[in-house]
Amino acid sequence: MARTPSAATPGFGPAFAARSAGPTRPALSQQAVVTAAIKILDAEGPAALTFRRLAADLGVGVASLYWHVASKEVLLELALDAVAGEIYDGLPSSAKTGRTSRSWRTGLRDVAVRIYDELGRRGWAAEQQLVSRDRGPNQLRI
Prior knowledge:
Layout: H1 30-44, H2 51-58, H3 62-68, H4 72-90, H5 93-97, H6 104-121, H7 123-131, H8 137-141
């Protein structure tokens, strides 16, 4: 009967040699992919955003990105929603709760101006907002 080696039983030979403690990369996450994509989009626009470029910036293989994001279209939707989260986070708390001594028109105007300013600064996000059918959680909060 063959005995299965356990982790406590060391092996001999190159197949069992300890791996070298080379440089390690931080774990890749969907948030890391979206954040890196937003940096590219803000700096160079949507034409510069490719999975090959994004993978190079993150120091991973292109196929690794597909584990976290299904396509460039999905990545653009996620990036737009992340920008909406930044917009929402920048709103005064009275705009988030709806409890204010000011009129609803003034509150709505403040939110609209904040959205306009942010989308004006990020033309790619304004363009994506126009063509997007989906609405992420941050967009729905606004």
